[in-house]
Amino acid sequence: MDFKSVIDRHGTNSLKWDLFDDDLPMWVADMDFRVAPKIQEAILKRAAHPVYGYTVVPDELFESYISWWDRRYDFKMSREDMAYAIGVMPSISSMIRCLTDEDDEILIQTPVYHVFFYVIEDNNRKVLENELIYENEVYRIDFDDLDEKLSKAKMMILCNPHNPIGKIWSREELDKIEELCKKHDVILISDEIHCDLTDPGVKYNPCDSSDNVITCLSPSKSFNIAGFQSSVVHTRNRELLEKIKNQMHVDNSDSCNVFATAAVIAAYKESEDWLEELKEAIYENKQIVREFIANELPIISLVECDATYLLWLDCSRLNVSSKVLSEFLRQNQGLFLSAGVDFGQCGDNFLRMNIACPEELLKEGLLKLKAGIIALNNIRNF
Ligand SMILES: Cc1ncc(COP(=O)(O)O)c(C=O)c1O
Fold first, then answer.
1. Residue 17 and residue 171: Cα distance in Å, rounded?
2. Spatial CA neighbour of 327 closest among 362, 378, 256, 375
3. What is the helix (H) or strand (E) element at residue 21, kind and residue range?
4. Is the Cβ atom of 141 under 6 angstroms away from ligand 1?
5. Which of 90-99, 156-165, 205-214 has the lowest mean pLDDT?
């Protein structure tokens, strides 16, 4: 598989490449790699039929999810416990609306995927932050704080594995989270969209789906098909599932795109080898960044991670806010990294870097990062 060639994505209405001119974009979470060949084949085959009317979700799609999680993660699901959605965030938004009330508090563990803040606030609910503890370049959960905050919360949205810190939560940590949610009668949504993208040989732990747990699953990140907008919701709690299905129907977030069906089935049924090679390519990129930082940019450090293609760079020794730093890198070098503060105030000493790109682009990005930091320090020391 070719993970080395640079593909020009300009002119494809790409959020990453067409929204802001001339920047080297290493922010939004999509990959600059060619899709798995079987996915493209399936799309071309479907496109060859000249009618693209409304579509139903075939059982084969659900079966492809069931088989994937069973054989890769020993996680058993049944069709009756699943519902189709047009993406993880639309489904979470619907769940917030039908399972909580206005002004209810919803807990998230910060720093975290920024859209978790928006989806809570845009639905007129309140964000309750359980800040992760950061010590010696490692993150862990503050369980005492979690216990206390959950006593006020109606829902918790877990990021498993966690974006932006790239951490896989252990079985023990997940069990403890589930137990605390049960104790306080809190609905636990586990967003597992990044679950397949782990270091080679490492596996994430699915949240166990006891009856207060809902998992959100999708091939969007793993197979770089976010543009198709497709996911499923899974819970063993049929009462919750019925409410969610009704709400997604009201919100029109349960309809299926004619090409999404073909892409998802081809991903889960025919593209596993591609995914394993992709994981190797991302891991190699991670090593390149690790070495570059150690040798060329020791003023910043890489937070150890075992999942996602998003690296969390500790820039605290630069003594500058992440917004100023990321804006400076854009103006000075045309390099676009995400400001850590976007993921919560406690992320302000960090930048997030997307490394899912050919090595050539990654190296260009690293050189720009170094040049930008030198330029910033020169200006400040002037
Ligand atoms: C943790 C997490 N959840 C959800 C999404 C978006 O999912 P969707 O496009 O299916 O709404 C992202 C995208 O980056 C993400 O990082």
1. 38
2. 375
3. none
4. no
5. 205-214
Closest of 347, 269, 334, 308 to residue 112, by C-alpha: 347
Q: Which atom of ligand 1 is nearest to the CA of 30?
A: 14
99 C-alpha to center of ligand 1: Å? Answer: 20
CA of 170 to the centre of ligand 1 (A): 21
- Average pLDDT rounded to a whole number, residues 143-171: 98
Domains and CATH numbers, the chain: 15-36+272-377 (3.90.1150.10), 39-269 (3.40.640.10)
State how beta strands 213-217 and 231-234 pair.
Answer: antiparallel
Q: In percent, how much of the chain has pLDDT > 70?
A: 99
Decide whether any atom of ligand 1 lies within 6 Å of the 91 Cβ: no
What pLDDT is stored for residue 382 in this prediction? 59
Question: What Rg do the C-alpha atoms of the chain give, in angstroms?
Answer: 21
Q: How far is the CA of 316 from the centre of ligand 1 (A)?
A: 27
- CB-side exposure of 39: number of CA atoms within 13 Å? 23
Instruction: Tell me the three state secondary structure of residue 313.
Output: strand
Cβ(16)–Cβ(8) below 8 Å: no
Band (379; pLDDT cuts 50, 70, 90): confident
CA distances from 121 to 190, 296, 300, 338, 378 (A): 19, 41, 33, 21, 40
pTM: 0.97
Report the separation in Å between the CA atom of 49 and the middle of ligand 1, taken as the mean of its atom positions: 31
pLDDT in tens, 296-338: 999 999 999 999 999 999 999 999 999 999 999 999 999 999 9
Mutate to test the pocket of ligand 1, among 88, 114, 169 (most ligand atoms within 8 A of CB): 88
192 C-beta closer than 6 A to ligand 1: no
How far is the centre of ligand 1, averaged over its atoms, from the C-alpha of 341 (Å)?
18
Residue nearest to atom 7 of ligand 1 (CA): 88
Give DSSP secondary structure letters for 260-300: HHHHHHHHHHH-HHHHHHHHHHHHHHHHHHHHHHHHH-TTS
How would residue 377 be classed by pLDDT, with cut points 50, 70 and 90?
Answer: confident
Least reliable range by pLDDT among 22-31, 75-84, 116-125: 22-31
Q: How far apart are CA 144 and CA 131, in angstroms?
A: 11
